[in-house]
Amino acid sequence: NAGVTQTPKFQVLKTGQSMTLQCAQDMNHEYMSWYRQDPGMGLRLIHYSVGAGITDQGEVPNGYNVSRSTTEDFPLRLLSAAPSQTSVYFCATQGPYNEQFFGPGTRLTVL
Amino acid sequence: DAKTTQPTSMDCAEGRAANLPCNHSTISGNEYVYWYRQIHSQGPQYIIHGLKNNETNEMASLIITEDRKSSTLILPHATLRDTAVYYCIVRVEYAGKSTFGDGTTLTVKP
Fold first, then answer.
1. Which residues contact A79 (CB under 8 A, 6 or more apart)?
2. For residue B1, what pLDDT is reported?
3. Kind and range of the H or E element at B13?
4. For B37, what's the count of Cα atoms within 13 Å in the CB-facing half-sphere?
5. Chain A residues with CB-CB distance to B87 below 8 A
6. Cis link prior to B21 (omega < 30° from 0)?
7. Cross-chain residue pair B93–A49, CB shorter than 8 Å
8. Which residues of B14-99 form beta strands (DSSP E)?
9. Which residues are CB-contacts of B58 (< 8 A; sequence separation ≥ 6)?
10. Pick the residue with more confidence: B64 or B93?
11. Do A99 and B45 touch (CB under 8 A)?
């Protein structure tokens, strides 16, 4: 039981490049979320999903797209990377008591 | 979701109880109190949650005041590995999102 996994662990992009951050879970949880955490800051919600085929925006959605075609996967796409998107990205699921389980994070640097 | 207020930082001696307060004076009747912690560079870890009764698990205890406007997370015997940022979150049960504030940085000292 791997829980929540994220790939890659580290990524360096150039401004304007696009990429997809992967998130997968084997907990059969319906809710999944993406957060970003800037240095010394708290977590900010980017997008979330209450189930396959359903997504919604969080507080900082600009520059990011998500889709949810399966229960297990919730990828986050950066359309055109900007230095302001340099951050640590965490994916999370929500358990039966609405507690959240977080992945280990992807550390992204945009040059 | 109701807003929470936590002290920026706290220290605790190793082996002593760590008591982390959280104020949530605007909490609604259907909102739960959740606690998480984040050890340096790792993903946040769920600790405990409650509605109005005190709760205890293998990690911690949660004390919620009778008017539910504040709560305290108690780590009964803090260790150096408990040094982390602790987040108090108030949210409704069915919501698919949580709002994380800045949390309390707990430093456990030898």
1. A18, A63, A64, A65
2. 62
3. strand B9-13
4. 19
5. 42
6. no
7. no
8. 18-23, 31-38, 45-50, 55-56, 61-64, 70-75, 84-92
9. none
10. B64
11. no
- Work out the average pLDDT over B59-75: 96
Assigned token pair, B49: 């949650």
Phi and psi dihedrals of B76, rounded to 5?
-65, -35
Chain A nearest C-alpha distance from B78 (Å): 23
Minimal C-alpha gap between B47 and chain A (Å): 9
Mutate to test the interface with B, among A32, A41, A100 (most CBs of B within 10 A): A100
Confidence category of residue B93, pLDDT binned at 50, 70, 90:
low
Whether B46 sits inside 8 A of A99 (CB atoms) is yes
CA separation for the pair B12, B7 (Å, rounded): 14
Site from A99, A101, A108 to mutate, B interface, most B CB atoms within 10 angstroms: A99
Average pLDDT, integer, range B76-86: 96
pLDDT tens digits for range A2-38: 899 999 999 999 999 999 999 999 999 999 999 999 9
**DSSP letter for each residue of chain A:** ---EEEE-SEEEE-TT--EEEEEEESS--S-EEEEEE-TT--EEEEEEEEETTEEEE-S--TTEEE--SSSSB--EEESS--GGG-EEEEEEEE-TTS-EEE---EEEEE-
